[in-house]
Amino acid sequence: MAKKSAIEKNNRRRQLVDRFAAKRAELKAIAKNESLELEERFAARLKLAELPRNGSKTRIRNRCEVTGRPRAYYRKLGISRIAIRDLGSKGLVPGLLKSSW
């Protein structure tokens, strides 16, 4: 099991991303618009830099829903390889057969 603090930190990041998503998208659109003046685009970049860093979507870490493990994460299922193995052994993942010999 991952540290509770790491899991909570990631959850707070997700909330910040949701809160600032529209503002970030608006400022990015202004900054990338070639038809606007250079000063206006530069001002948009400065405002974008003032937003919280954890409000960026790239700061979110994919974590296992069961254990909180940050590595070996399967996006399709939302859990780690170890959790898949445990749940597969118990027969809780439909269509998964754990081989054993």
UniProtKB/TrEMBL annotation:
<keyword id="KW-0694">RNA-binding</keyword>
<comment type="function">
    <text>Binds 16S rRNA, required for the assembly of 30S particles and may also be responsible for determining the conformation of the 16S rRNA at the A site.</text>
</comment>
<keyword id="KW-0687">Ribonucleoprotein</keyword>
<dbReference type="InterPro" id="IPR001209">
    <property type="entry name" value="Ribosomal_uS14"/>
</dbReference>
<dbReference type="InterPro" id="IPR018271">
    <property type="entry name" value="Ribosomal_uS14_CS"/>
</dbReference>
<comment type="similarity">
    <text>Belongs to the universal ribosomal protein uS14 family.</text>
</comment>
<dbReference type="GO" id="GO:0015935">
    <property type="term" value="C:small ribosomal subunit"/>
</dbReference>
<dbReference type="InterPro" id="IPR023036">
    <property type="entry name" value="Ribosomal_uS14_bac/plastid"/>
</dbReference>
<keyword id="KW-0689">Ribosomal protein</keyword>
<dbReference type="GO" id="GO:0003735">
    <property type="term" value="F:structural constituent of ribosome"/>
</dbReference>
<dbReference type="GO" id="GO:0005737">
    <property type="term" value="C:cytoplasm"/>
</dbReference>
<dbReference type="Pfam" id="PF00253">
    <property type="entry name" value="Ribosomal_S14"/>
</dbReference>
<keyword id="KW-0699">rRNA-binding</keyword>
<protein>
    <recommendedName>
        <fullName>Small ribosomal subunit protein uS14</fullName>
    </recommendedName>
</protein>
<dbReference type="GO" id="GO:0019843">
    <property type="term" value="F:rRNA binding"/>
</dbReference>
<comment type="subunit">
    <text>Part of the 30S ribosomal subunit. Contacts proteins S3 and S10.</text>
</comment>
<dbReference type="GO" id="GO:0006412">
    <property type="term" value="P:translation"/>
</dbReference>
